[in-house]
Amino acid sequence: MAYDSPFSTPASTPLRLQLIDLSTPWSDVSLEERGSPIRIVNFDHAHSVTRKTRFRRYHRAIWPAVFLVIGSLWFWGGNPEAQTRVDQNLAPDIEGLQFVDVNHPGIRFVGRWTTTSDGARKEGSFPGVYFDFAFNGTRTVLLSLHNSDPSGGTAAIEPSSDAPTLAFLPSTKLSSAEPISLLVRVDDNEYIVLPNATSITTIQNGKLDVHSRHSIRIIAPMVRENAVETLQVKGIYIDQGGQLLPFADTSGPALEALVSSLQHGQATGEVVTQPPEKMLEIVTDLPGSMAGRDRRRNIETARGILGGVMGWEYLLGEMFGSDHVMIGMDGMCLIQDCIGGRGSPAGLADVFFQSGPLGTEQYAHPWLFQAYIPDAMVLNIGSSDWDSFQIHSDRYNRTTWELSVAFEDTYIALVKAIRTLAYPTYSTTTVDSSRYVYSPTSAAAELPIFVMRPFRGQLEQATHAVVERLRREGDRSIFWLDTSGWLNTEVDFEGKAEEQDFFLDAKSETKQWRLTERGNQRVAILLHLHVCRYLARDAEKCAFLPPEVYQGKLPDPQIMRFDEYVEDERERRMKKLFWD
User: Fold this and answer.
1) Least confident of 126-130, 197-201, 324-328, 572-576
2) When comparing pLDDT for 24 and 209, which is higher?
3) Is 3 contained in some domain?
């Protein structure tokens, strides 16, 4: 005999959970196609009797919980000192540590950084900015940031120092930026992911060998979607007995004499001696660091952050052990007044001459081009412009050819501005131009600029015309890189992600085709051949590339049809010879 309780939920009420059978791992139907395995009907349509029944059953447990929550809110709201004590307990302990500010010569900032007027911190807003430092005698390393703490905790106050004379333009902004995700590499170990870093952040806590020399690199990938970020660095904390080892670059005979006695980069007393760092500067509107957005492989936040060191622009510099700087904004057009482009009416050429990307406080400060001079430049521009021309063609009131010519003229103006305004006194002592036919020995050494054909062939003719026009005007240090054949532009959506060179970023505004991890690696390897003689420490070991590589002869449709005709005719005659 079954007993029906008056408090049981009737089978027909909306409160009963409706279960569906789960698919087995071998089923052809995925769970996404069938929906959630548990469907909960809206509670608002349940009968009032049922609601009263549920509250009648649980009122003894609910009311004490309500009073407990109210009491907790009253306690925390009326006791800010208690909140401060909890925040201090959660924050890293800096007692017994010494503070080293950002002006210490042992901290080497790479990229475009600005400094505040009081010299208390440095700020970087371009994706991929980083800084290095080497040290010994400490087990603990903490990073001090000015980025805001969402919990409201109070950051430690470091002693102020006099601001030295720097090439960075001073900033007067005192507010804190949002939390920022960082990547940290200690010595040659794997990267450490620090999501949403703020205030005092732990890098290493009591695990380092005090008798060994260590080096740390801190990178700001800045891979958040449709957002600009800023890294605000105050300094670092180390043990009282620790010390930073200043970098002392040597060159010429002094370096040759040093090589005979010890390997490059080893510590000599308190100084880290190493050869001069080469510099690579890349300008792009489609950074490869966005590979972490691949939804087929991005299963966690850490992988998206790690995408910052998986892009071809970062990998290329690491291949040579050289410094590398990436300038640009994802989805930003080169031309001004770009419909649908990020940051319009400003263009990528405007951003190049500023200290930070559009939307940051650093964008208001012109870059003075005194902090570094690149040994080579790579320009990969055109994807965003082409997307705008195709998607908004009806709004431009101009033909595609006219838009292409406007892009070409803007590109040429940018290169000329780089030559005359950014790096007018470029010189090199490492490249023997007599080895190459396309660079006459009588020509003055200029900054080598590589103009890349966009990876999927957008505006191919325009980028090629840019180089042709500049070379006719006498610029012999600009080269066009034909990237056709570098990557497989066909995408198998049902295939394995690691076997694809591109993926579709469906969540981007323009549905961008982006490079996968494999695609980024292939681009970096192929670019390595072209920039090797400018970035390698021993240029004699680089492969010789004939001048025809950079002539970039575009395929002529008429010639292609003629070649097909000749091939068909040859095949017909061969069949006639053997079969007739």
Assistant:
1) 572-576
2) 209
3) no
Predicted TM-score (pTM) of the model is 0.72
Q: State the residue range of the domain holding 174.
A: 92-245
Please tell me the predicted confidence (pLDDT) of residue 496: 79
- Classify 34 as helix, strand or coil: helix
Is 535 within 8 Å of 376 (Cβ atoms)? Answer: yes
Number of structural domains the chain divides into: 3
Q: Say whether both 46 and 171 belong to one domain.
A: no
Give the burial string for 501-533 (b: 16+ CB within 10 Å, else e). bbbebeebebebbbbbbbbbbbbbebbbebbbb
Same domain, 166 and 120: yes
Q: Taking Cα atoms as reference points, which of 142, 135, 134, 143 lies closest to residue 243? A: 135
Question: Measured between alpha carbons, how far is residue 547 from residues 397, 448, 485, 527, 529 in Å?
Answer: 40, 14, 19, 16, 14
Q: Domain holding 357: CATH number?
A: 3.40.50.1110
Express each pLDDT in 98-156 by its tens digit: 999 999 999 999 999 999 888 899 999 999 999 999 999 999 999 999 998 665 544 44
- CATH code of residue 131: 2.60.120.260
DSSP letters spanning 370-436 = -S---SEEEEE--HHHHHHHHHTHHHH-S-HHHHHHHHHHHHHHHHHHIIIIISTT---SS--GGG-
Of the candidates 152, 282, 139, which has an alpha carbon nearest to the alpha carbon of residue 203? 139
- List phi, psi (to 5°) of 567: -65, -40
| Same-domain pairing of 115 and 32 | no
User: Are 102 and 72 within one domain?
Assistant: no
Residue 264 lies in a domain: no
* Beta bridge partners of residue 171, listed in sequence order: 116
The answer on 433 and 297 residing in a single domain is yes
Facing residues of 504 across strands?
513
> Which residue in 237, 200, 233 sits closest to 121, CA to CA?
233
Beta-ladder partners of 144: 200, 235
Structure tokens at 305: 């952050």
Please check whether residue 211 lies inside any domain of the structure. yes
Backbone angles phi, psi at 394, to 5 degrees: -75, -15
131, 109 contact by CB (below 8 A): yes
Same domain, 284 and 165: no
pLDDT above 50 for 466: yes
pLDDT at 477: 92
Sign for the CA dihedral angle at 246, 251, 255, 257 comes to negative
pLDDT in tens, 286-308: 888 776 666 666 556 777 788 88
Q: Does residue 551 lie within any of the structural domains?
A: yes
Residues 479 and 429 in one domain: yes
Reference 316, options 327, 326, 306; nearest CA is 326
